[in-house]
Amino acid sequence: MKALKSFCNWFKSPSKMAVGVVVLLSAIAGVLLWGGFNLAIEETSTEEFCSQCHMNDVVPEYRQTIHYTNHSGVRAACADCHLPHEFIPKWVRKVQAAKEVYSYFMGHVDTKEKFEAKRLEMAQNEWKRMKANNSQECRNCHNFNSMDFSQQKSVAERMHTAAMAEGKTCIDCHKGIAHQLPDMHGVKSGFLSEDAKKEEK
């Protein structure tokens, strides 16, 4: 009982050294947690990680596009397009992606056939997300204000000029830019890139 009373008295008025130890340990724990969270974000944002579930569907498609191999050698990885770069939106998207990982392991899209059956729904969800954020992930690399339209093909110059005037965003026209389009029969697809139009037919 005496020991308990002593502890309570100490707890009510801890020494400066005890407070210092608690503050130091809290700071170390905070740094470790912060570092661990960031490491987890980085490790789960690599093509290798994404390929664990998507090697039989969208990864091979992506590897056939200009975003994977091009004359400049600049590659847009999975996370560049599917994960916001800003801190809070990145965490929100990661939480949403956890549900998608759960769905995969529950067997909802764990085969190519199941994936194809859900492709339109998943694509529409992603297009909606990109439309809502003004295609921010695209704009991290491609920005109307940085484009020299005179260096573009005439059709691209015309389409980009019209898109700017009409307030359109990248995903309005470039739905089929990095992956095959789902079966779009009976779906109003809006403007698509030339490659996307070919995929749609």
Describe the protein:
The chain is mostly helical and 201 residues long. The chain has one domain: Orthogonal Bundle (Multiheme cytochrome fold), CATH 1.10.3820. The protein contains eleven helices and no strands. It has helices spanning 2-12, 16-43, 47-54, 58-62, 78-82, 87-105, 112-132, 136-139, 154-166, 170-173, 194-200. The chain is elongated and about 85 Å long. Residues 15-184 form the NapC/NirT cytochrome c N-terminal domain. InterPro entries: Cytochrome_c-type_ET, Multihaem_cyt_sf, NapC/NirT/NrfH, NapC/NirT_cyt_c_N, NapC/NirT_cytc_sf. Heme 1 binds at residues 50, 53, 100.
The average pLDDT value, as a whole number, equals: 86
- Unreliable spans are 191-201
Examine the coordinates and then state which fold CATH places here, giving the name of the CATH topology: Multiheme cytochrome fold
Rough outline: elongated
- The CATH class assignment is Mainly Alpha
Number of strands: 0
Helix/strand order, N-terminal first: HHHHHHHHHHH
Helix content: 55-70%
**Alpha-beta classification:** mainly alpha
Number of helices: 11
The description of the largest β-sheet is: none
Strand content: under 5%
Provide the number of structural domains: 1
Distance between the termini: 83 Å
Binding site for heme 4: 170, 173-174
Cofactor: heme
Subcellular location: Cell membrane
Membrane topology: Single-pass membrane protein
